[in-house]
Amino acid sequence: MSPDLAIVVAAVALPFIAAALTPLFFRVLGEGTGFAGSLVALSSFGLLASQYGDEGTVALEWIPSLDIALRFHVDGWALLFALLACGIGTLIFTYSPAYMHGESGLVRFYAALLAFMGSIVGVALAADLIAIFLFWELTSLCSFVLIGHYTADDSSQYAARMAMLITVGGGLFLLVGLLLLSIVAGDVVGPASAFDLAAMLEQPDAMAAALRDRGLFLPVLGLLAIGAGTKSAQVPLHFWLPNAMAAPTPVSAFLHSATMVKVGVYFIGRVRPMLVGPEWLFLFATLGLTTMTVCAIMAVAATDIKELLAYSTASHLGLMVAGFGFTSVYGAETGVFHLLNHALFKAALFLVAGIVAHEAGTREIDELGGLRHDLPVTAAITAVVALSMAGIPPFNGFYSKELLFEAAVEASHHHDIGLLGWLYPAVAVFGSIFTVLYSLKFLSLFFGERPADLGHVHRPPVTLLIPPAVLALLAAVVSVDPELAVEVIVQSGLEATAVDPHEMHVGIPTSFSPAVGMSAVTIGVGLLAFPAYGRLHDGIRAIPRTVPPIGANWWYDTIVDGLSDEGREFAEYVHNGLLRTYATWTLAATCTLALTGFVAAGAIAPTEFGLEVTLAIGLVLLVAVIGGLAVVTSDSHIAGVLTLSILGFMVAIFYILASAPDLALTQLVVETLVLVIFLLVIEEIPESDEIEVGRSVRDAVLSVGVGATAFVTVLVTTSARPDGPTDIARYYAEQAVPEGGGTNIVNVTLVDFRGFDTLGELAVVALASISILTLIVMRGRGDDGYPAARGNDGSPGEEPPTDDSRSDEPTDTQRDSQAAGGEDE
Amino acid sequence: MTTVIMRTTARAVVPIILVVAISLFFEGHNLPGGGFIGGVLTVTAFAIIYMAFGLDFLERGVLGRDVDPGKEHSRDRVVVAYRRLFAYGFAIAVASGLGPLLFGEPFLAQSFVMLEGVPIYDHLEVASALAFDFGVYCVVVGGLLTILSVVGAE
Hints:
The complex is a heterodimer of chains A (about 800) and B (about 150). Chain A is about 70% helix and about 0% strand. With about 800 residues, chain A is mainly alpha-helical. A two-stranded antiparallel ribbon of chain A has the order 1-2. By secondary structure, chain B is mostly helical. Chain B has one domain (about 5-155). Chain B has 5 helices and 2 strands. The longest helix of chain B has 26 residues, at about 75-100. The two termini of chain B are about 15 Å apart. Chain B: This is Na+/H+ antiporter MnhB subunit-related protein. Chain B: Keywords: Cell membrane, Membrane, Transmembrane, Transmembrane helix. Chain B: It is a multi-pass membrane protein.
């Protein structure tokens, strides 16, 4: 059965509409807005659930001229992800009011959370490359707003900026990859569905072959991997995720564990049938296993419970990426099943961490312990989900980890990968040992001795407890009967992501296999090594302290700080507050770009141009040239301006002789007006002839450059014109009277045929007036809006406005004012 | 430059310039001229007034308002009026472009009608482009006069 367009669109649009209405909700409901949010999430969940079992693509027309549509593809994989987002969203919205009680900025918080949910459902269902990209970046933007929720907090801003830079930047790589994909798709599935991912996935082999033919297979694979890797926090770009824990805990649970960070994994699963191959295996299995191991080790080094969970999330994302990376069917099973399992246990763990932080008042691992006395229900929930995270049988995390081990062992059977065939299983086991360690550590917060200086721990309100309890219950159901989960959703998700899907079975192993052995080693070593956790923790923490460049965060800071400093220094040259500097840079850049453009396009060719001028025109132009020379040699500004206007008037006469009365009229009037304005301004310009040699050389070079550019441009544009009037010129000439009703072609062209251009020019005139007005009127003011007397420069701070009190580092407005003011001193 | 010769000439010349400017504006569709040229010419007329009679003349002499001596010129009501003029002009131009949308035509589509049997003129052409051109005229006059008066005040 094909899905219903209206229902699918409603499920995506509902959260966005609710986000727009959030201020209204908040006015009525106050802090209870969260419950309205959970109702919205539940509605979207219901709408999507009604499409359960359907498969197909529906499209809403968007930009038909570019063949871009809001296409939505519904299948098991999309539904699994979208339902997960809405389901966990419902729980998060239920959890938030109690957690965010008494905080400010709740409207922004809920609006961003709702918009995020809409985008994540959108990215899950979208089948159009452009729509995918838009929803993808929307999730990053919402995440930016939510991480930076505590706007006054520096670390929060730092984390938000970092997440934005990495995920949105990665999204741009994805965009390039998607565009390359669409170029190839245009040949394979037809230009009408060049952006239709669903159509591409119907012919995965043809697409892969076409990509390889055009040599675009590796670029596309690499670009998509960068996009997905940044979003899903893969090494070496994983460091934004632990920093993103500056966000409120509901956000961490929703965005940074269960949904947004899985978008990359989801997308890898989505394109898997099309791009799978030896390169795929090598890239994603290596990337995923590295991330899994490195981040698991870092999680052991964590001192904060949310930091521990963040690194653990990155590690599990690595597990999923590695799963999809293995080309056997076990690989796809790992990815799909672990996506579900991880969402269940990790969201619950974050919510538990939120409860602990909220009730105990600290998140430091060292300060917590023995919490089972104070938080018995929470402890029970944690036991289920933490053991699931560790992959201890019979909890649900065990099944998907077992699948990963099987896929890792199988890898060498499918491809000839030499030593890697041994390395992959070994690394998988090695990383998993650390997973067991930090999972046990998290669980141990609830057991053992209660530290003496841990204050009174409150009982959490019931709305904080229900969401993690529901998740733990679901995790328990999957643990007891994994076949049920497989039957309900995982099997259909598998069919969309695997190349040769078959009936999937999971359960407690009953006979020995390599994977069982690997699980046994993992759990055994993990349990044995747990008493040494403290020493391991200290040892790992010491590494980045001794060798800073080993941490990715160090690189980020170095690069970003370096670029900011470079930028500031560069601004000193380009943006130093002197109008002549701006003019120099603008003109020089324009000339360079224009001339480079001509050269690159091969437009400059030696042309013969004969001098065919009448005597009258020749005389006029000669006078103009003499006027031009006189400008340079004139010894006062007034003489210079007056001689300059000789040139202008000669040009006007030239227009008359060349039978262009409109141009001539305009030139005459404008020339007069410009002369008047020049004469008004000129009195203010100091008559100083003393300028450095360097500067006059610079000015001379620039003038010659501008002149040459103008000259070349005229030559190039006129030589490219065909002989006789062009089609457009003929059209204007013929249609001016019948269509425009005017015999003045120039005017009809201006106001009728090309009215849009004129409108743009009007905007320019208006903008120019506004900027001149602003420059002159505001120039007496400093930052503080102190209206200094005219002729004085604004001065910063509380100091009196005198000429001497310029600070060493004037702000931009002050610099402009100095530039403008400097002229009249 | 406020000499007697200048003032006397200005008195004679300014009305002529303004009439020419307006006729250029209206004739523009069929003869050389149009909103832009008409606008710039109108501004020249104002420039002559400013040069001959000083910046406060319009405010004090023509409109009969008091002017504070030390006041910033850019706060004058005349300057405010100029600023409004280019804003309104821009609005007129955009509105004249939006009008055709009501009739199912594209943005900025223009049309014209010929009125026959009008007294004196015999036949008169009414082009919708005139509204757009009027917008151009207003923006040019408002914008340039703002620049002229503010720069002139310095």
